[in-house]
Design a protein that fits this description.
By secondary structure, the protein is of the alpha/beta class. The chain has 14 helices and 13 strands. The strands form three sheets. It has a seven-stranded mixed sheet, sandwiched between helices.
Length: 425
């Protein structure tokens, strides 16, 4: 049986196959970049059109009018997001953007005192997370060279949880790590890290940009202190869309480190007083008004998620990435002369939603794939990320991607392509 035949069999038996038609797929292309920007759903389009019509016909009354209710949009969306991360509805709110939410949460929970002032991160973190931590340390009069611990990677791809736990000394005030490493796709053991930190009196937070909508979480059960994530990757809410955050209820009532009007007690927000009275749940960590149009887009996507179920989405995601690895191995692409390496852990419990393919000419291969209608992305220095998304990628798409990859290398196309990355990789 050929790879394409196997793919067609898997597609015929796929319980999520109907959702594929609810997304706008790029004409003539196979989209494997949903871990950077998810595709637009027809449900999102409908909700955006509705929001535009409400704006057009209601004007300012859209803030409170039945069916619009923009005033509580962040909380409404938070309630829809909560099942995806294993939280209660009032512990999640849609607000801000990823790094703004990180700043708001770190400004709240990073309280250096005496000897306890260091922050644990990793040397493989997304740069924005590190920039934010460095700036928060500086705001507290610290020195990032001394106070920011970046856990080293033994292989340049992954982080060992043992090393994270070993670094939790009595001078550590905060642990902030990604749920999934953006380059390799390694899924960290959030439960172990959170519980180890709690046992030592350390606050633990997580950047879940590369797992929200792809990997189910159980934040309450794991006793995570806080988390934040974007909604434009696996959650398909559109470029630059509203972010989201989680705060465990044991921290309700703590004064947000970066308070803003939108986090005020809703019933009294328009009293316009200068004494802070925060909303009773995670809504207190809102700073500014929830963007209505991107919120509408997120609502449309979440309609699909709540129908499909995050467990079913995760099951298909794991099956797709395993199928991709099998095709690469069976086709000999991991051997000479193809010389592709897989930088993602093969253990399903340690794998997020994408597969990192490593090659010395990765930038050129990514460009050649794109020219042939396959849309991946490139991450320096040598990674092509392939992200089959459960809701709109088919197994046939995966088979065709591997066939195209093999054809490019066999024809030597990567040798004649520009070896440098594009401005937006």
């Amino acid at each position: 049986m050929t790879a394409r035949d196997r793919a067609l069999e898997l597609d015929a038996a796929d319980p999520l196959r109907a959702y594929r038609d609810r997304f706008y797929r790029l004409p003539g292309k196979i989209y494997m970049d949903g871990n950077s920007l998810g595709l637009m759903s027809k449900d999102s389009e409908t909700h955006i059109r509705t929001a535009l019509e409400q704006w057009k016909t209601l004007g300012i009354d859209g803030w409170m009018a039945p069916g619009a209710s923009w005033f509580s949009l962040g909380e409404q969306l938070g309630a829809m997001l909560a099942p995806l991360v294993g939280a209660s509805e009032d512990e999640v709110v849609a607000t801000g953007t990823t790094t703004v939410n990180q700043h708001a949460l770190v400004a709240t929970f990073y309280r250096p005192e005496g000897n306890r002032r260091r922050i644990i991160a990793s040397e493989l973190d997304f740069p924005s997370d590190i920039y934010a931590l460095q700036s928060q340390i500086l705001l507290h009069g610290g020195d990032p060279r001394r106070d920011l611990i970046r856990i080293s990677s033994g292989d340049g791809r992954t982080i060992e949880e043992n090393d994270v736990v070993a670094a939790m000394s009595d001078d550590v005030a905060l642990v902030l790590l990604p749920s999934v490493l953006y380059r390799s796709g390694q899924l960290l053991d959030i439960e172990r890290i959170a519980q180890s930190a709690r046992e030592r009196g350390i606050i633990a937070g997580f950047d879940c940009a590369h797992s929200a909508g792809s990997v189910p979480h159980r934040f309450d059960e794991w006793e995570v202190d806080f988390a934040f994530w974007c909604t434009y990757k696996y959650l398909n809410a559109g470029p630059g869309s509203v972010g989201a955050l989680y705060v465990n209820r044991r921290h309700f009532g703590v004064h947000p480190g970066l308070a803003g009007w939108w986090g005020y007690q809703k019933e009294r927000q328009f009293d316009m007083v200068h004494d802070w009275e925060g909303a009773p749940g995670a809504g207190a960590w809102q700073i500014s008004t929830t963007p209505v149009l991107s919120g509408a887009s997120l609502r449309g996507s979440l309609d699909i998620f709540n129908e499909a179920g995050i467990e079913a989405i995760r099951a298909k995601s794991l099956k797709m990435t395993a199928f991709l690895v099998d095709l690469l191995s069976d086709g000999g692409l991991l051997d000479h002369p193809y010389d592709i390496a897989i930088g993602t852990p093969l253990d399903a419990n340690r794998r997020g939603g994408h597969i990192a393919l490593e090659h010395a000419s990765a930038a050129a291969i990514a460009r050649a794939l794109k020219r042939r209608g396959i849309v991946p992305d490139f991450r320096a220095p040598n990674v092509i990320r392939i992200a089959p998304v459960a809701l709109y990628t088919s197994y046939e798409d995966i088979a065709q991607t591997v066939e195209t990859l093999q054809a490019i290398i066999e024809a030597g196309e990567h040798l004649t392509e520009d070896q440098h990355r594009e401005l937006v990789a």
